[in-house]
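Standup notes, protein team

Yesterday: finished cleaning the Citrobacter cronae set.
Today: RepB family plasmid replication initiator protein structure.
Blockers: none.

Input for RepB family plasmid replication initiator protein:
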Amino acid sequence: MTNEKDSEQQGQMVTRAFSVTERETGKEIILRPNSSRTVQSIALMRLGLFVPSPKSVGRQSREYKTVGFDATKELQTLSLMESEGFTNISIVGQRLDMSVDFKTWMGIIRTLANHPIDNDKISLKFTEFLKLCNPENYRSSTASRKRIDASLRRLASVMLSFTSTHSSKVYTTHLVQSALLDPDSDQVELQIDPKIFELYQYDHKVLMQLKAIKELAKKESAQALYTFIESLPPNPIPISLTRLKNRLNLKTRANSQNATVRKALEELASIGYLQYTEVKKDGKVYFQIHKRDPDLNLNNIQPPPDGDGERDADEENNGTSGKNNGEPLEGELCPPDEPIDGDETLTIHDLTAEELHYIRSLRSQKKNNPAS
């Protein structure tokens, strides 16, 4: 009886993780990940977690194989922080790439949304899991098993540590608590810490269309920036070049980082997703986002720049990614100094009738209260 009750509670937790509440009616709407869209935590999309692979940026050094950063501001709304008195969250683990690991993570999200949980575990056929990870190429083979196995190992290595400045108490969990891949039975078993579902609490999630991800195959920097930009609220304030370098978690020379960011933005514009302007103020480079279209229907014509838009040869090259020696503009989007904006960050495309009604009401509210 206890196991049944636990499974029911876990099922309710998953339902809440994929639901939003319409303001006007109070009606709960379930967001459904599928082969053309995924539901993702806004915090994870803004953090430098899923990033370009070392090969894609020509780096094979040891430091490029790991990540580690403070995620306190992005994850400060987790109830675990308040209930247990934690004040800091850090994330450490192997570097996760866009080409394999992000697809595996999307497969895990689809698995959670569509399969029952029993004692924090989900079991399904490997071939089915592979299809959830990569709908376009899901043929089971030795190579695909090795690829998924390695990816699950990397995801399981990512550790979230909760600590407090007021006590020695520590809580540690993983993005994936454990993963079992059994070739003999053709089964995959995943164990997820229920507290991870809090990353999706309330409206701190984005229903993200995958058309751009597919269009940008093998262009991992552009893919990573797509997940970041698509998780931003309507009418976002200008984004600094430094912030975008942080998101990609690059460790190359500063000039190379600048070029990588610009190329990625140009690729997003070339597929019809993005219209933006590069501007410069007080010696710093910013990008103003004008339009985003996950259906990729923009005409790719960049609007005229506001200001001189000139690039100095030594711009932002006095430090590597993650360093900012000057003062940011007021309101600069540069986490961890920028908190999550709650339900204003929800972006939804390719919708059911209920979801369409919800997002139209949300956009109507935005029009009545435009960003300054």
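Follow-up from PR in the comments: Residues 2-362 form one domain.
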